[in-house]
Amino acid sequence: MFSRPSLCGTVGKLCRCGTSATGITTVAAATVPAARHYHEVVGDIVCPSQVRGIDHIRDPRLNKGLAFTLEERQTLGIHGLQPARFKTQEEQLQLCKIAVNRYTEPLNKYLYLSDLYDRNERLFFRFLSENIEDLMPIVYTPTVGLACQRFGLIYRRPHGLFITYNDRGHIFDVMKNWPEPNVRAICVTDGERILGLGDLGACGMGIPVGKLALYTALAGIKPHQCLPILVDVGTNNIDLLEDPLYVGLRQKRVVGREYDDFIDEFMEAVVQRYGQNTLIQFEDFGNHNAFRFLDKYRNTYCTFNDDIQGTASVAVAGLYASKRITGKSFKDYTFLFAGAGEAAIGIADLTVKAMVQDGVPIEEAYNRIYMVDIDGLLTKSRKVGSLDGHKIHYAKDINPMTDLAEIVSTIKPSVLIGASAAAGIFTPEILRTMADNNERPVVFALSNPTSKAECTAEDAYKNTDARVIFSSGSPFPPVQVGDKTFYPGQGNNAYIFPGVGLGVICTGTHHIPDEMFLIAAQELANFVEPSDIERGSLYPPLSSIREVSMNIAVGVTKCAYDRGLASTYPEPQDKRKWLENQLYNFNYESSMPATWVWPRMPYIKTREESPLIAAIK
Ligand SMILES: O=C([O-])CC(=O)C(=O)O
Ligand SMILES: [Mg+2]
Fold first, then answer.
1. Is the ipTM above a cut-off of 0.90?
2. DSSP letter string, 388-415
């Protein structure tokens, strides 16, 4: 992942290596032996003559393993450092498949992939992007949750930047240590609410790393343009504080004014280092902070909160698709949310927007949405203070109730959405009530990872005579009911954020309106085929998620120009083609300089000249 400084070989005389134009920078002399010059390989710009041959093997961004050609091996001076065999990238992909499948434990698969990432970046991303259905559950939800829980044990090399509270006043200096000068997208967490697993402090780094891996694998955003960040302000997780393997600051969370000032400084440092239009994706912050920061920064920075807006978008896409099965329109739906945190409120707010766009008056839209939090149904009779922020819009003038089964029987929702991180609260009884009250009940169990889902896919189908329209945040295996197999779709924000990210960074959008997430929802829903619905899924298969991401990026790009939010001019006419031209190349590129006279070792022949070498295939 990291590009390391390398020795250019110039000793005792002035080095004539260029700096800016080639993307090569000279590293501060203080750490460098006298009269020697070191260089960094940054971004995707490489000047092979100024990088030591061995660095082409050691640097995962340059390494191609056995795919280095004979010419490259000789030119780079790495001939003999590898076995004789030449492999194509395709052959290497086959090996990766065999290697990863040797492991049965998902965490071991995760570690294999993490090592591949550290060894050969292009191969890692091609492998991931071409095997999304198998590998997304490993590098992302649910296995990434386990990786975070075991972070202290499995930590090997940094894949992102750790900014601790001790760095306050110097965040910009820390950011300067990140070796990439052209970061366009940051995913940041403070680790307070990692998936539904709670406060994992610095171990939460796995989340931004996993999210940004999907930026590249699903939307083709170049890896050097992505920066995962963990802001470490401590943790309130006592187990971690007492765990000798914990790698973060061993202190309680900094809160209040100090915390806010710290995040303010972070936002300013991002802009100072990488520019005003750097995309900052907030991920897995605690509820109270997530909403505050979104409101505070959304109009002044290029930012969004994935748990509020990304999850909302994927859920609303599922609701659009569900209408094709129920034959109803939004005005006929009654919604009940179990949970009133980031995801639930985000989905409810965007659902209101979608209903209004469908012609439902706004008061009526709010009336149609009920919400339950840890204290029961949100009602107007609640104590002041327990209806903070956005919750107030969803409080109803009815008797308080605390039992979810009773609430479901009374409200008779047509749509039941779980975003509570309370595993199993959609009991068989509740699911049966949903089926009694609706010909096609809609049930989303969105909490992550799998262990936190409100019900399993199997429970949902089996307790509703398989009439349920189901989706979940984490993947579930297919469910067999009678002679029919259902393939539940994964209502995960991974369908949304990579495409939104691509559109936003290519257009240089100043800030991100909710409208973009509604557009993303519509693009995703439009992609759902009757055959997906037939299979029991409200979403297209994960294998088409790259196409979905591109469609979303095109929709976001149009919106950015229509709304005057873009800063990249002129406006491209063919937006899809323009976006495609900016994508990461998953295939190896030549490591040979463009104009190079091959100084081959005299006793070696080219492959064409030598049947012996041609035979080493
Ligand atoms: O990471 C995921 O799978 C979805 C998400 O944002 C969350 O659960 O916080
Ligand atoms: Mg999240």
1. yes
2. TGGGGGG-BSS-----HHHHHHHH--SE
